[in-house]
Amino acid sequence: MHTPHALNRRQFLRNASGSAVSLAVIKPGSVWSSQANSRIRLGLIGCGSRGVWIADLFQEHGGYEITALADYFPERTLAAGEKFSIPAHRRFTGLSAFQKLLDSGTVDAVAIESPPYFHPLQAQAAVEAGVHVFLAKPIAVDVPGCNTVAESAEKATQRNLVFLVDFQTRTDPFYREAVKRVHYGEIGQVVCAEAAYHDGPTWYKQSEYLKKQPVSAEDRLRAWGLDRLLSGDVITEQNIHALDVATWALDAHPLHAVGSGGQYRKYGTCWDHFSVLYQFPDGVDLTFHSKQLGQGHADILCRIYGSEGTLHTDYFGSVSIRGNLPYKGGEMVNLYRRGAATNIADFHQAVLTGRCANTTVAPSVRSNLTTILGRMAAYRQTKVAWEEMLSSAEKFEPDLSGLNP
Which end of the chain is more exposed for a tag (fewer CB within 10 A), N or C? Predict the structure, then answer.
């Protein structure tokens, strides 16, 4: 963790930069040349509710043209195709729909909004096809998947391709400023931390597919949020928001974890509550707990406790620092939508300017692996070390037999 820095708040340099860029045309893998009134051709992989929602944001930005769609289910590509005026020959279905989209030669970039199990393969294929990648979190459901995404992003940088992972909190100026102050030692020596994700029942609409008998392969795919092999379980698929902020603020990955949890609901294979104790370098413990059942208070929070102050963040509340060097911060206003829109704008500018350092990937790999470590410790109900998790390379393999290729 970070000790107090020689710089104080008044000496702290705050950099701000901005540049006006005009819309331009690009060949995948190269910097865009100037051509007025042109847009990035975008393929949407995953046409469910989240996919269509974020496609609307791409449309609202104005710098994109949605040119192709891919989803396993034909009715989803049909509905999205009619909504975004995509001709039938550019609507692809089946498990290989993403590859058909990439082979069509009609996209410069893809937004991947499919179930997390498919993210590594689809992102890897996009980079191989010379296409820019906008990837939903979590990036993967297991260690091999995280490794694949890391390798694909490195290859994307080598090929002058943009690879962005869509976390909303990292776009927010209050989060950024507060975390920067922690890194500069303004809360003193970090002593301990906590993170939490509290909500009511999740994926309740999907549960209808699992309550009937027999449950088909397509039913499981429709209810992917309740299937641990397709989603990574709730600690990876959703709780990652809180753990991403924690690892960002602590600027490290945990050394080991112990945990527990379980499943109260009677359908699906995902747990609905977790409790994990992580230990980070320098003896810093992070207490994490989540629940997605019952009613009551809902929040996604992280607190970092230092010798001279405390960082408080709440996805639906506010961000601030209390202590010897306080930071007022501010309230969160529709961060879910605003953060995604900011990432869409940043992705667009990165493609136009050839900015391919792809700095969102490494912290996304770290937080994703942190959720996997907690999941493994909770499943085993024993202490699991970071290196043990990496070396085990445990792979999630859902049964996809019976699905259309």
Answer: C
185 plus 146 within the same structural domain = no
DSSP letters for 245-286: HHHHHHTS--SEEEEEEE--SSSSSS-SEEEEEEEEGGGEEE
Same domain, 237 and 373: yes
* 278 in Cβ contact with 373 (< 8 Å): yes
The C-alpha atoms of residue 359 and residue 348 are separated, in whole angstroms, by 15
**pLDDT tens, 221-238?**
999 999 999 999 999 999
Q: Are 258 and 274 in contact (CB under 8 A)?
A: no
pTM, whole model, 2 decimals? 0.90
In this model, does residue 343 exceed pLDDT 90?
A: yes
State the total domains in the chain: 2
Give yes or no: residues 207 and 328 share one domain: yes
CA dihedral 193, 197, 198, 204 (to 10 degrees): -170
| Domain span holding position 385 | 173-332+358-392
